[in-house]
Write a structure and sequence with these properties.
Layout: H1 10-17, E1 25-26, H2 43-47, H3 52-66, E2 73-77, H4 80-90, E3 94-99, H5 105-109, E4 115-120, H6 123-129, E5 132-136, H7 148-159, E6 164-168, E7 188-193, E8 206-210, H8 212-222, H9 229-239, H10 242-265, E9 269-273, E10 277-281, H11 288-294, E11 297-298, E12 300-301, E13 308-312, H12 317-329
Amino acid sequence: MSSVFHGGRLDATIAEFGGNHSTWLDLSTGINPNAYPVPEINPNSWARLPDENSQNELIDAARRYYRVPQEMGIVSGNGTQSIIQNLPQVFLHKTIAIVSPTYEEYSHCWQKPEHKIIKSDSLDRAVAAGDIVVLVNPNNPTAQRYQPDELLDAAQRLASKSGILIVDEAFADCAPELSIVPDMLDNIVVLRSFGKFFGLAGLRLGFAICANNYAEALSRIQGPWSVSGPALAVGTKALRDEGWIAKTRIEIKQNSQAQVEVIEACGLKLIGNAGLFMEFEHSNPANFYNELQKEHILIRAFAERPNRFRFGLCKNMEALERLAFAVKKYV
């Protein structure tokens, strides 16, 4: 198991603060609390090894949903986490500049003798320092956004020294205009997460979009049957469900804005809103995280930035009212 601290560790929190899953308001992740309705799954998806036709259907659905250019490759995997862990095997002997703070699994997974890791506080500094630049857009946890033209410029500057730009678009479903995928260059690798926007993180499904030679290398490393039969079936149907996708984007935008307004009214300062999560600053954060846990509310705290907290999206108005009541007590 990774040594990186993540949200979603509700069992450990329950062991310390009591209650059960039904009594807790878990806002420690950026997973859509109103998940895609899981369709009935053909028993063959459970009983047989995933077949090539099912894999091709998923890739076709993903290619259309993510607007992947035909000349680019696309690889599916057992969640983007598995792809993140495999990337260091594709790009050897490189200096990795990670635009930080961000998802800590990148620095954790690239910690190998053949790699040098630099954490940079800006995209420009990362491009100047690294052979490979890693960036999350919108960023997790700050929700900072980068426009496609900024990223294309960075990729072109990296190309001049045979560099690579890796863009994690795990939360870009809520803001598809941010995606660089339609304008891909050969030295760009984009990761897309299925589970966050569709609210089915337990399904474990993700994608890498990149030049064909990198896609072939990732496929070889992953080996056969990297995505389960049920995940192929559910993923294909969900990615093709344009009505649900459009409706959900509108709902997330409206609900996240309402949540921002409520938390700001409680006295916290907004840092950024990515739709499925938002980061706030607390002017006097001592004990805030623990006090919320006593109320059976779990958010995401950061040891290296003790005045910053990330809130996942509330499922409904009842959950938001409960959150607001608790936050007001400790601001």
